[in-house]
Amino acid sequence: MGQKFSALEAKHIEFIGKQKIYFVSTAADTGTVNLSPKGGDSLRVINANTIAWLNHTGSGNESAAHVLINPRMTIMFCAFEGEPLILRTYGNAKVLHTGDALWDEYINLFPKSIASRQIFLLDINKVQSSCGMSVPYFNFDSDRDDLAQWSNKRGKEGIEKYWEKANQQSIDGFDTEIMKRADL
């Protein structure tokens, strides 16, 4: 049965550390709700009430736009092997861009990547666990390296041009501040 917690417990942190995929959900006050799968070595539990995750360059930039308008964020972890469990962390997030003062404090927690676009800090105010007994089993094969290859081929300048072309607004037209706050 589901349980609620005010912070991550040691067993939650251990579970999170074993996950190969997680899901991030954000929404502005109006417009489209965004739910994005994330993977790779892109998430760190800072403490029982803080998660940092590295957002790589992609075709959309919804989370950044949404958090600027409404900082609510949910991160969901789901067991696809072993004991069934769904774990959700709820709270308010802050987005860090490459030019922000706190960027250097967090970027070195993650593997170096030319695709690094933003870091999100989730201030957790609620944790919920639920059974997950209907979630199917899946076996992890490997991480994809497609994004790394795509990014490395473009280089820093090519990535920045892509941000300018495709990452300045959400699909609902909300500003992401990427060009204003990036260290170009």
User: How much of the residues is beta strand, in percent?
Assistant: 25-35%
Query: Count of DSSP helices?
Result: 5
> Describe the biggest sheet?
8 strands, antiparallel
The CATH topology name reads Pnp Oxidase, Chain A
Radius of gyration (Å)? 16 Å
Task: Describe the SSE topology.
Elements: E1 3-5, H1 10-18, E2 21-27, E3 33-39, E4 43-47, E5 50-56, H2 62-69, E6 72-78, E7 86-97, H3 103-107, E8 116-130, H4 146-166, H5 178-181
Antiparallel strand pairs: 1-8, 2-3, 2-6, 4-5, 5-8, 6-7, 7-8
Would you give an account of this structure?
The protein has 184 residues and is α+β, with helices and mostly antiparallel strands. It has one domain (3-177): Electron Transport, Fmn-binding Protein, Chain A (Pnp Oxidase, Chain A). It contains 5 helices and 8 strands. The chain has helices spanning 10-18, 62-69, 103-107, 146-166, 178-181; strands at 3-5, 21-27, 33-39, 43-47, 50-56, 72-78, 86-97, 116-130. Strands 1, 2, 3, 4, 5, 6, 7 and 8 form an 8-stranded antiparallel beta sheet that branches. The longest helix has 21 residues, at 146-166. The radius of gyration is 16 Å and the shape is globular. Residues 9-130 form the Pyridoxamine 5'-phosphate oxidase N-terminal domain.
